[in-house]
C-alpha cells in the first residue's frame, strides 16, 4: 500500500477528436519521460476511450477519468490507487472553468484561440501534481485577476515607452 500523498494528478491532457494533442502537462517526470512515450500513452488512452460511454478507465497501471465535448477529449490521470472522485473533481473543475472562460463554446477552434487562458486555468487547478482548486468560480476569478495584472503591466510598459520616445 502506497503512502498518502498530495501529488494526486500524474497528467492532464486535452486531445482533439482525431487523438491529436492540443495540451498536455505531465507532473511525474518518471512516468513518461520522453515526448514519444507521452504521445504513445495518449494514443493508447484515446483508442480505449474515444468510443466508450464510461468516465473512468484503467490503463498501464493508471486511473484515467475523461470527458468529451463536441470535438475535444479531456483527461486527468492518476495512479492506480488514486481516488477516482478526486480526479473527477479536477476534471469537472477544468471543464467548467474552460466552459465559463470560453462562454460555453468548448470546441477545438475556440480552445486553440484561447490557449494562453487554458494554460492559466490548468495552472490554477494543479501545481506540480497537487490539486490547488476544485471550484470553477474561484479558478475563473484567479485567472481574470492574473490576466488583469498582465494587461496593467503591459499598459504601464507602453506608457513608459511613450514617455521615453517623446523625450527623444
UniProtKB/TrEMBL annotation:
Domain named AP complex mu/sigma subunit: residues: 8-146
GO BP, one annotated term: intra-Golgi vesicle-mediated transport
Compartments in which it is found: Cytoplasm; Golgi apparatus membrane; Cytoplasmic vesicle, COPI-coated vesicle membrane
Signal peptide interval: none
Superkingdom of origin: Eukaryota
The UniProt record lists the keyword Membrane: yes
Keyword annotations of the record: Cytoplasm, Cytoplasmic vesicle, ER-Golgi transport, Golgi apparatus, Membrane, Protein transport, Transport
GO cellular component annotations of the record: COPI vesicle coat; Golgi membrane
Pfam family, one: Clat_adaptor_s
InterPro entries: AP_mu_sigma_su, Coatomer_zeta, Longin-like_dom_sf
CDD domains: Zeta-COP
Membrane topology: Peripheral membrane protein
Annotated function: The coatomer is a cytosolic protein complex that binds to dilysine motifs and reversibly associates with Golgi non-clathrin-coated vesicles, which further mediate biosynthetic protein transport from the ER, via the Golgi up to the trans Golgi network. Coatomer complex is required for budding from Golgi membranes, and is essential for the retrograde Golgi-to-ER transport of dilysine-tagged proteins. The zeta subunit may be involved in regulating the coat assembly and, hence, the rate of biosynthetic protein transport due to its association-dissociation properties with the coatomer complex.
Family recorded in the similarity comment: Belongs to the adaptor complexes small subunit family.
Complex formation: Oligomeric complex that consists of at least the alpha, beta, beta', gamma, delta, epsilon and zeta subunits.
Name assigned to this protein: Coatomer subunit zeta
Name of the gene: copz2
Amino acid at each position: 500500500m502506497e503512502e498518502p500523498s498530495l501529488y494526486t494528478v500524474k497528467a492532464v491532457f486535452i486531445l482533439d477528436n482525431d487523438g491529436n494533442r492540443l495540451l498536455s502537462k505531465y507532473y511525474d517526470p518518471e512516468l513518461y519521460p520522453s515526448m514519444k512515450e507521452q504521445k504513445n500513452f495518449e494514443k493508447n488512452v484515446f483508442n480505449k476511450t474515444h468510443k466508450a460511454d464510461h468516465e473512468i478507465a484503467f490503463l498501464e497501471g493508471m486511473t484515467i477519468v475523461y470527458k468529451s465535448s463536441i470535438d475535444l477529449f479531456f483527461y486527468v490521470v492518476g495512479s492506480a490507487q488514486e481516488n477516482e472522485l478526486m480526479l473527477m473533481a479536477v476534471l469537472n473543475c477544468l471543464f467548467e472553468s474552460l466552459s465559463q472562460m470560453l462562454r460555453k463554446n468548448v470546441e477545438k477552434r475556440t480552445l486553440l484561440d484561447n490557449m494562453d487562458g487554458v494554460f492559466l486555468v490548468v495552472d490554477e487547478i494543479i501545481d506540480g501534481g497537487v490539486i490547488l482548486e476544485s471550484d470553477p468560480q474561484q479558478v475563473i476569478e484567479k485567472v481574470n485577476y492574473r490576466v488583469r495584472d498582465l494587461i496593467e503591466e503591459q499598459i504601464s510598459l507602453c506608457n513608459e515607452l511613450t514617455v521615453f520616445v517623446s523625450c527623444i
